[in-house]
Amino acid sequence: MLTSTSALPKMVRDALMNLASPDDIREMQMHLDAALENVTEDTTQVDLEVGAEPDIDWSTWSEGVEDLKGKGEDELWSMLGLSSKRLPFFQEFTDPSGNIDPWTTEGTQWLKEETKLREPLRPRWHQLVGILRMLEHLFAGRAVLLMDGVGLGKTLQSLGVITCLVMYQEYHQRHKEYPGCFSDHPSGSIPALANIIVCPPNLQPQWTREIHHYLEPRSFDIIPVAGAIHTREPWDKGIWGKSVQPISRRIVLAGTQAVADDGKAMYEAADGRTGEPKAMVTFDRLAPQSVYGRNYLLVIFDEAHAARKINKLHVAMRALRDKSSGMLALTATPATTKPEGESAEITLPGISAKIPHSAYTDCMLRWMADFRKAYQRHVIRRTIDSLDSDGNRISGLKPYVDRSLALKMYPWEYESLKRQAHAISSEASGSANIHNASKDWLEMRSCKLDALAKIVTHHLATDNACVLKVGEDGYTLVPDETAPRDDPETRGSQPDRIVVYSAFPSSNFAIQDVFRLFNIDFVAISGKTALAKRAQELDKWRSSTPESGPRVLLLSNVGMDLLWSAQDDEQLRGRIYRYPQRKSIVIYRLLADNTPDMFLSTISFAKSQIHQAFIG
């Protein structure tokens, strides 16, 4: 039994420190009252067609919002019933660098000061479209699968849905109708329930930061859930019991492992082929301290592809779906690239499709048509190349430069590669740590390491440096004068920084040695780096300048839970190629010619046709 605040996990301590006080709640209620008055005045003047299904041919969906393409921002705000053109409970300003925590005293004061660094916090056109379409689906009782590409703001849209629902509930209590285009909706009032966000444990701190970034300080209380069920206190004795917020302004933030463990302890799959949950005899005893001890308005399931197979998380999330009024699943990669088990499945809680098994992968594209049909009324999917109502790219980003550098290996490297292949094939146990033990490994990787050092030193030496290409000899790197370069007036004042992604962490030691050899200051983060240490290293990288600090970040297996593929590549690229990035991004792919590099690159990206067949 924990007896002191200092003994609590940091996530719990932070949540306790950020619980809203009665004064905070009174102030927030005053802001909400003022916003509701504006909603009332505005919606009486809007002449919109309400209460009807969207006029869209769902069978041919590509983005799931085709019918909203012609709507401008003003019309979207009116359809949402938000005449102030601000999302409820959202901050007015933001720190685009993400270095400021607006829920701290210093952060709140920073955002109040009229500095050139702060920027107005305004959702982009596609985010308003996403929020509106998700609300339409939820009002119609449909689960939603938000598959926007990385960097398009799925978090903002999800929080926007939560805050709109809270505001709509308050509005309905006063006016017995909903605002905007939902005014003729026949359903009753939105229940006064908390919302729950389920995400991988390593993303819980990130979700907390995003909530702080977007929402006004202490407008919602965050209730974290982590750890084994027997270590948790009952709801009324934990953080929930200490919160004085209205229940609808509480967000439960639960890790997928905690939810899966709760589900395993309290549910079993009634049918192993469908994953339908059946409560066990332990339910009544364990419910008071589990995620199933409450009902929820909305379940938001981040990284939902983790439950696409019938596993314990899938059963647990289906049970949690039964405890909620609506469900929103977030993922950019719902489709597998091969048959799994006895069938090919894309089955998410609240949305299901199941196709008979076949061993022939060429059947997969035909099956995708059936999957698309099952999902046709649930999906929202935009990419960085999608267009807004004015025909501009919704990302607001400049096109990126993508360079695959096919490098010739040095003669001794080919000989080394042959020796390594022979050593591996003759190693009976397969347990030798060849990568760390063999000098030949360093030699084999030298063409890539040499190129990496040249690329990094070239771009650190001068901001907005010319893009490099492989010279005619296949070994040297030379400037490509034809490649586009940024206009210095529009690329911002931040210095250029570099991210190096190593797909194989075992090669990191060689990369780091090369960086030290060339006096390149860097920080390194891997999947094993502790969260606190990870945040510190990222802060060093973000705050670096040409004069001091590490401007190079070495990543390996951080938040990358997919195989090397086109989807994996999209997730990695989206870590830096996202709004409000002002610079053109240059992506280099280092490939050793006449090696398996070329084959793996081709076949891995060819897998994307399965994914593309599903998303259209």
From TrEMBL:
Which SMART domains does the entry link to? DEXDc
Read off the InterPro entries from this record. Answer: Helicase_ATP-bd, P-loop_NTPase, SNF2/RAD54-like_C, SNF2_N
Domain of life of the native organism = Eukaryota
Arranged from A to Z, the UniProt key words for this protein are: ATP-binding, Hydrolase, Nucleotide-binding
Please list the GO terms describing molecular function.
Answer: ATP binding; hydrolase activity
Q: Which residues form the Helicase ATP-binding domain?
A: 119-358
Know the name of this protein? Helicase ATP-binding domain-containing protein
Per the UniProt entry, what species is this protein from, by scientific name?
Answer: Neolentinus lepideus HHB14362 ss-1
Q: What is the lineage of its organism?
A: Eukaryota, Fungi, Dikarya, Basidiomycota, Agaricomycotina
